Fold:
Amino acid sequence: MSISIQTRYSSHPEDFSIYNTDEIREKYLLEDIFVPNQITGVYTMEDRLIVGGIHPVDKPVQLETIDQLKSPYFLERREIGIINVGESCIIEVDGESISLGRKEALYIGKGVQNVVFHPASDGRTLLYFNSAPAHCSYPTRKITQADAETVTLGSLENSNHRTIYKLLVNSVVKTCQLQMGMTELKPGSVWNTMPAHVHDRRMEAYFYFDLKEENVVSHFMGAPDETRHIWLKNHQAVISPVWSIHSGAGTSNYTFIWGMAGENMDYGDMDMVKPSELK
Structure:
């Protein structure tokens, strides 16, 4: 079987406050997302989002069902969003071949039975995905950066000059509850999602990439008045519960993918926290 998904349970903010470094990394960090010829990831009880990577190297990889779902095929009751962080590749969706370029997204709705990921010619197919429960079916759709709702925020003076590409949001494509997008930091900028925020209506996951081997990101999480951090390398992800802030600063600029699941599809639904209020 070419798919391996771990289960991780949700946690209470009072418990989180006493976790040590190893416990925080064990519960929230996804380190080895890309395994050759495998689909790997985590089924988190935080809104039952599945977070993971797909890395076909020298043979196609099929999206098979997993034991946690108790369903005959993976997307019987789910939707999935895929963003390509490697080379261009072909994805088969119920027999239709779709070419997906670097930093392009693909939405596949509930009810699709056969999804196959084909390797790029150089074996550098790296696909990051989020999958959420779905109550109805929407059509498969490819979304390019040109299709995205785009906004540029911040400034170089504040080290947070960045462009946000809203790829899988309800102003661009119909989904049930899944939202995904990508934020690119400009050279010289390192801070993301600052001022920080929380949103009780949905959880979030971050995936960091475009980092050179010697660079890292310190991702901040926890309740606004009792924060912690996790150090992440290139091609690693972190799970953020609804009660947690999600922000970060790197030793260089980088790109990250944000994905959300929950009951509110309003991208702007955020409870902001001033930097001066963080502890």
